[in-house]
Write a structure and sequence with these properties.
alpha+beta, single chain
């Protein structure tokens, strides 16, 4: 703007054409200078604004990054699902002790433990075992699959119980109960009267007992959710009949007949042994009757001699005398 003013003053005494040309040139120069200055000022201001915006953006970005970093460092804690897994398997194997040893190895390798164990034999003499296994919850499916493949699966029962709400509730109650116990202890420290101390001690005992009960529930839930329970029952495989057993030959028939004969003879001997005491008693009674009682029974009348008439009487035998014997 000073250039245009100085140009106007300098050419004020010149001729009109030169003055007009000078004015036009001065105006053009002035306009160009003002435009350059304005452009430079605007560019400088734009650059400053840009720097300010960059600085603000950088500060905002740094604040945002800091906030996001803090959020990334402390994300909201998700609610962990707490599930109690229980299963029951009945597997038929060829060798029960061997299968039981393999099951123990699988559980121990998974970080579990073996609980109660019972072994006995059924009515046919086949061995069977029942064992309770505890395995970590994250290895539950793997161990269950290994146990199912140890033999012929006869029965499988699996159950999953979600106790997340119960676990969260017990944890909250434990925190509240601990705070309550702490408040009672603070009041006991501030109490001055003996009656107040006695009352507070009773209240503290009650709340302490409630806290211990909640802690026991919490420990039980933690144990059942962290370790799954698998009840495994093992039984021996029944021996299958071979083709020779299904189609018996002469030797098998002979052996079967001999077994039948021996069985029949044994039953006959048992029957005779059962009847023999009665036979001995009946024989003794018959001998006694023939020896003692038969002589006392009255004799039957003598039959009439042939030729005698129906009205004739029986003739008595002659009486012997001593003189007759001498003659």
């Amino acid at each position: 703007m000073q250039t245009r003013g100085s140009g106007t003053t300098r050419h004020r005494s010149a001729r009109p054409v030169q003055i007009l040309s000078a004015l036009l040139l001065a105006a053009a120069l002035a306009l160009t200078g003002c435009t350059g200055a304005d452009d430079a000022g605007s560019s400088d201001s734009a650059a400053g604004a840009k720097q300010d915006s960059k600085g603000g953006a950088g500060a905002a970005e740094s604040r945002t990054d800091g906030g996001s970093a803090d959020q990334a460092a402390a994300p909201p804690k998700p609610i962990t699902a707490h599930i109690i897994h229980t299963a029951s398997l009945t597997v038929q194997v060829k060798d029960v002790p061997k299968a039981l040893g393999e099951a123990r190895t699988v559980v121990e390798n998974a970080g579990g433990m073996v609980g109660d164990e019972t072994t006995d034999r059924d009515s046919k003499g086949r061995e069977r075992s029942r064992v309770v296994l505890r395995v970590p919850a994250d290895r539950y499916a793997e161990v269950l699959a290994d146990l199912e493949g140890s033999g012929k699966l006869l029965e499988r029962t699996a159950k999953a119980q979600d106790v997340t709400e119960q676990v969260v509730d017990v944890e909250s109650r434990v925190k509240s109960q601990r705070a309550s116990v702490a408040r009672i202890r603070e009041l006991m420290d501030q109490a001055t009267k003996l009656s107040d101390v006695v009352t507070l001690e009773g209240e503290l005992s009650t709340r302490q007992a409630d806290l211990e009960s909640l802690l026991a529930q919490q420990a039980s839930l933690k144990d059942r959710t962290s370790l799954a329970t698998i009840t495994l029952s093992l039984s021996e495989t029944p021996v299958k009949k071979t083709a020779e057993d299904e189609d018996p030959g002469f030797v098998d028939a002979l052996a079967g007949g001999w077994d039948a004969f021996v069985t029949m003879f044994r039953w006959i001997a048992l029957a005779l042994g059962a009847v023999l005491p009665f036979l001995v008693g009946a024989t003794l009674l018959l001998l006694l009757w023939m020896r003692f009682l038969r002589g006392r029974t009255p004799s039957r009348p003598v039959a009439a001699t042939p030729g005698a008439g129906p009205g004739s009487l029986p003739v008595a035998p002659p009486v012997r005398r001593e003189g007759d014997d001498e003659d």
